[in-house]
Amino acid sequence: MSREPTVLPDGDEATTGGRRRRTRENGRRGAVWDDVAWAAPAEPDARRAADDGDRPLGRRAHPVARGVFVGVWVVLILAIPVLTFVGVRAVGDSNAGRELGVEDDPTAEGYEAAVEPTPTLLVVQTDDLGTLTGATVLSLRNSGGGFLTFFPAGTVLELPFTETGEAPMNDIYQGAGETGLEQRIETLLNAATQENVEITNNAQWGSLVAPLGPLTIDNPVALTATDAAGAPVTFAQGEIPVPPEQIGLFVNTRGPDENDLVRLERQEAFWTAWLAAVAASDDPNAVPGETDRGLGRFVRALAAGEALVNTLPVDPIGIPGVGATDTNLYRPDQAAVDELVAQTIPLPVGVGRLRSRVLDGTATEGLAVEASRILVPAGAEIAFIGNAERFGRAETVVQYYDPEEEQQAQALLDALGVGRLVLRENVTDTVDVTVILGADFDPETAPGASAAVDSGESLDPAATTVPVDPFGVTTTLPFGVAPAITPPTEAPAG
Fold first, then answer.
1. Roughly how many angstroms between the first and final C-alpha of the chain, as a whole number?
2. What sign does the dihedral 75-78-82-85 (CA atoms) show?
């Protein structure tokens, strides 16, 4: 992702990009009529005299110029049938605009709907010295609530094109900023974060919670910190009131005998208390900022339902002379991370995933949804769910359009466990692959079923998506724009 991070609390929690309009000045060209001196009509004899040869002769075109002009016209005339043939071939090979009818019955053949991806927000936080103290990925559920996944600041992430090939998050942040850290986190999760917020000092935390006043926090471990004036501030273990001006110290400070995981427990305790206070408040401004984006949107949505807290699955990295429990370096457990992502971000986007259309060719209720859950861990980004143009298909087919994506498409087919791979080159489509499910597909016995996690998120097209309308205004959220077509869904024979 390449968006500028937002620094709080400046009132704008997310920047929105708009299409720049080109303006054109429409001035009149030509003479000003009031300034034209009109000549009197010539007498008949005078005109006749001019026709007898007194008027100057106009320049005649050069023979070569005339030949070039005629030649260009001949070429253009001959090109018409050629261009017509090429145009017909292009339209014939394109999936764009092939079917303009809109089917709005989710049980009917040919129905398709654009799927809204899981909303995600990355929160990056630093202390007053600019040192990274943690990162949190927030994700929302359609039914309300969502998930918070906390990253220890010492998490070691892959860092290509370097001598070691990896680095702790704080080192990445110091060298590449929030944008570089965001890219590395997205690579680990194999999922893009749609929005991002950067909280760069203790005072900004105070501004965020100020509308609520002191928070009652269940502090897991006692802590003594030092405020900006150099005075000690003690946070006792157990339920304690923490005023807004001390929240930054509470979440950013790591005690001298603590590791990152202990500080992470305090951060989780703060978020639990914050969300509870927001849920209990009737103040519409309990969370600063806008309600449709950024922290304003995500905190309100998490507080409105059940918010589940997770710590990124990591293993401590041993350091010579330092016990495993005292280290502040952690390596992610990739298998456990993948399972966590499948649960917390059931509909991810980007980061090398194949944008996919999943269609039921058997008229089996819920089949496309079950297949989608299997395909996501295998690398699919579910863009559309629906039905094939005709039911009664016996064989599952995975169509892909770029030969370079064969290996990724094969991974999707392997996850399904049945069917065949079909390459359709020279076809324009809005997705990378189209999966058409046949009677041979069984979601319970598919090899990828073991990696599928039921997050409880509804993927029912009738409930969470909109019909693809070629002439209507798109209504999907960011990262999911309904295309202006319903592409053909039938695989070629053979």
1. 40
2. positive
Q: What does each C-alpha distance from 215 to 37, 219, 270, 282, 293 come to in angstroms?
A: 85, 11, 8, 16, 24
Q: Give the distance from CA 104 to its chain's centroid.
A: 26
Burial class (CB in 10 A: 0-12, 13-18, 19+), 11: exposed
Q: For residue range 369-422, list pLDDT tens digits in order.
A: 999 999 999 999 999 999 999 999 999 999 999 999 999 999 999 999 999 999
d(CA 428, CA 386): 20
pTM of the model: 0.72
**CA 388 remoteness from chain centre:** 26
DSSP per position, 339-351: HHHHHH-SS---T
Q: How far apart are CA 465 and CA 117, in angstroms?
A: 10
d(CA 336, CA 312): 9
Domains and CATH numbers, the chain: 112-116+353-467 (no CATH), 120-344 (3.40.630.190)
In angstroms, the CA 364 to CA 11 distance is 49
How far apart (Å, rounded) are the C-alpha atoms in residues 412 and 410? 5
**Beta carbons of 68 and 458 less than 8 angstroms apart:** no
**Encoded amino acid at 8, one letter:** L
Calculate ∠ Cα 303-308-312, nearest 5°: 130
Mode of pairing for the β-strands spanning 6-7 and 195-199:
parallel
- What confidence score (pLDDT) does residue 429 get? 85
Tokens 């208390």 sit on residue = 273
Burial of 464 (0-12, 13-18, 19+ CB in 10 A): middle
Q: Which of 179, 63, 191 is nearest to 118 (CA)?
A: 191
